[in-house]
Task: inverse folding
């Protein structure tokens, strides 16, 4: 299947597995049209290392682990700290 930037809902439904694979492999999004109007965009998933939110979460967890290693922290466990932070 050759990747196109747009496709109809009917074609997307009929060829979804191949369309999804092409989007994932090529890294390019496809806009699906329904009734001649843009309806949905199929995009490749972000890789964890490219996702800012995931990177920030990992960094925050690492900082929390470092904090827990110090004897002066006010928490009895990671769970208590996360609960206090509302996580």
Result:
């Amino acid at each position: 299947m050759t990747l196109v930037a747009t496709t109809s809902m009917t074609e997307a439904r009929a060829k979804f597995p191949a369309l999804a694979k092409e989007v994932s492999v090529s890294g390019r999004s496809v806009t699906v049209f329904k009734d001649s109007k843009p309806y949905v965009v199929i995009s490749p998933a972000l890789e964890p290392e490219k996702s800012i939110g995931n990177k920030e979460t990992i960094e925050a967890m690492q900082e929390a682990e470092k904090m827990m290693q110090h004897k002066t922290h006010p928490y009895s466990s990671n769970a208590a700290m996360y609960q206090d932070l509302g996580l």
Q: What stands out?
A: Residues 17 and 30 are 13 Å apart (CA to CA). The chain has four helices and three strands.
